[in-house]
Amino acid sequence: MGSDWAIVGGGLTGVSLAYELAKRQQSVVLLEQHDPIQGATRWSYGGVAYWSGTTPWLQQLCQESRDRYAALAQELALDIEYRDTHLLIPIEAEQDLAAVCQEYQSFTPAPDLLTPQEAQDIEPLLNPSPFQAALRFPHGHVNPLALVRAYRQGFVALGGTIVQTRVTGWQTTAQQRISGIETTGNPILSDRVILSAGAGGRSLLNQLGVSIPLYFNQAELIETEATDLPLNGVVLPANQSRLRLESTLTDPAFAEIWHQGKPLNLPPALEPGGVQFQDGRCCLGQISRFCRPQDPAVDRVASEALMREAIAKILPDLATLPGTWRHCRVSFSADGLPLIGALPPWENLFLFSGFTSPFALVPALAVRFAQGLVGELEPELEIFAPTRSTTHSTPKPSPEHCP
Hints:
By secondary structure, the chain is of the alpha/beta class. Helix content is about 30%, strand content about 30%. The protein has a 6-stranded mixed sheet, covered by helices on one side. Strands 3, 4, 5, 6 and 12 form a 5-stranded mixed sheet that branches. The chain has a 4-stranded antiparallel sheet with strand order 13-14-11-15, with helices on both faces. Strand 16 and strand 17 (about 345-355) form a beta hairpin. The longest helix has 20 residues, at about 55-75.
């Protein structure tokens, strides 16, 4: 006998939605290849940019997510390591201060403008000399791996089933229904399927002839060993190099790169910064680059050296910490909004993916989407529909793109 729902992908999106559906008395099977998880959720900073909504509706969702973390801390049996902290955005001496500040004024609340010394006062490890100023936002932070573990345990306690397997394809009917999911083990049968596999979702959808504006790049960072050196909040640069890269990759003029696999030589986007977890580990990074599975492997030694050189300029005491180079593929959409909803013509296939600020939006939208899937979808969710018509534009500044 099959389940009510099968969810492909056990990162933040998949496991949160599985948990919320199970809370609503649905039978759910969650398919995830790795335990512990290894993708974009695992190698993320875990920053919760609850200030980053640019419309009243997005601001409401960000606040709902922040409230949801407080509820989850009580609801789930395991500690998710959520804390309220700050995001510090140093502005380099050669940058246009007024232009950088203007980019961040649409957020609520607007950031504080600090002198380099004031920035160092709240982050003693910061080297103030390369900067003319810094922006400070109130910010949230959660341990991504701890959050997923807590969601998983709560999901299983509600009767959910987790199958550790890799999805390889689909079983379909002439009526354009998904009848089963092919895996490296036994096929999985379910009435309805939700794809939450992040960057991996694009190749799975290609098998079904479904084309949607879901893109990905490769993100690289360094996970350090535990240290007693205190990094109090999240530090990220004011440059928008990753967003410019994403803008290029989602430009309709480059559609052939995705559909035909043509090469595109683009320089990597370097955004030096970091965050520290409760156990003393730091994530330092990051590099984003256009890199597909068929492309030559990245020189990890050169990548790590480039990140350490950049980090040494802003957080010199952390730049030499022993650590391990990590990488993952990160999905995003052309307009910066997630892709949530049905995937016609397949009548029992849905998508919950493509989040640029996952930790700020996923908890709230998992609740709303789960409620809609067992009842009636809210009209407000239509702005996230995978089939929506989008125009190409540079995404809004959102420092909490994964990782």
